[in-house]
């Protein structure tokens, strides 16, 4: 699933800011129109957002948040000239002069968030003052595709109502069984806790941070250095005889922390621990049962530390070899996810330890996170201690928020304010603007930061506000409670709401009473997902490519009469690759490999696919053509990042725990790396990506650097004389060199001359295509300014690839 905000920057993005900061910056909400409750305590399915400025006169356009199909379009009604005393238009708010634009677009999104987890949801863009001519009912639209311009809400220009909805089946897929069926934390704290602690979270969807429930009785440990005997074979230089010698070696171990009475010291209180990887760092943050961080700093290990000190994101490969030599591949997952979620586990999983240092109420200590009583989760489980939840306790069918859960949250804050006012003699039943203090207090409580924080990450089920069906029945409470049964005021209100309504004609194939997703938090959360549908993955492959042809020329030295081969780097082709069907077979296993080996950010994925797409002949084959004739046969390239040479294959076997493999089976094992229907071709690519850590060349680390794009123009020979561009960056060169030419990472002439990386312009072509699909980056124009939304000469694939 690839998703982004409905507003994007006019210029290039700041690559140093976090994804959450980016979303918050471009999804600024207005003071009113909050989610999920708005005026009159009416359910409000979306949020009002402000379009950022391009300049003093222009706003950025509204864009599609994900690939999809346009389900409904309503062109906006032009604002009439009411200055001559004409009767106010219904789109003027309740008969006043504040105009509301009614342009509306609804998009259906079909994507995936994990293995066997296809999902469908809908995004609603309301109050548009103009809609792009290309946005037509039934047409496909790409993520970032322009929809139109934000219009007026209550007379203020440059705003939209933005909403994300789904039916119950798909909502349950998004949230997962655990969070969807757990009782609400705010009404049944004990029941919610017990539901989560009874089992670990799902693994078919697993993304973002990992979490651990550590019960109060869990033992805590201290690190100690101990000496142990080690048998070392010694060869006699004179006779050649080999004998064993016992030497003393020092080893770091974790030993139980003892109390004065000799018993093991325990954590002492139930806590939740978050493990987050980011740009090499590994951060452990501990929370109490209410989700409040424990006193004390989180435990942070950095990516520039050596393995002997800590375990962090950039050295998971080295750590897995050292800590779990019998099955490094399972050890890698244990360090990465806190559990083994793949199909290659330890022979005796219960005997394996996973010690990590965490913050406890008693200070920083080590805990074995692999104990069976410690449950494991990820952000895909929407943990309640991070504020996530579901609310569906208002089933009376009207538009008023009668949720006891929301009411209890607001009431607690309201009562707190009453106590404060009463203490200072300021609370009474006086009327202010025809509203009592009680109502104002309730409004203030709802708008308070305390309440908004508690309700902003909840998924809610309630009826749409955009239907005209049974209007008087659904909104009679407004006429009575807020208009004092004034027929004229209610008639103006009704006319206004019905002038904006669209549900009954839009044909959205879900019930009117449906689930509403928290718009800002939903987008922030699923930008962590990184699972690509097969159609999103197909779009990564450039439709038109620049391909370098290395023509070998043979010359004879007249003195030595020896043959010499030189390479011509000047011939290029501009053509369409033929194959993309391989993705149908490998995309599930490929997603699992990307997830396992931390290739989960857009820039890491762009670097990975930029190399893999080129090495597989534009994702058409998993073996090197003609490899049997190479000097390194039969160890020629196989897999998505083609393993070549015997030592690389043997390293992969060792990583999988196959140290005793029979040489007679080598050939059969090598063939696994070219079988498209199993995991080995893509798992071996993920392994090879992190395997470079043995030379301190970490592709993920280079991908995490700033990607300063530079365009380069070349002239093709086929077709002759055609000028085309590709885009390169030092960061991509380093990532590409790390898996191909580790000794040349520091070079600056990386795509020039005879030492250039094989097919680097080709790789850059795929890299730029991936950046356009996976990121919000802009590309340099002819002046070098980052203004282009797509690479020059780039022809996007269709939604279905």
UniProtKB/TrEMBL annotation:
Residues 75-95 are annotated as: Disordered. SUPFAM superfamilies: Duplicated hybrid motif (SSF51261), Lysozyme-like (SSF53955). It comes from the Bacteria. InterPro entries: Dup_hybrid_motif, Lysozyme-like_dom_sf. This is Peptidase M23 domain-containing protein.
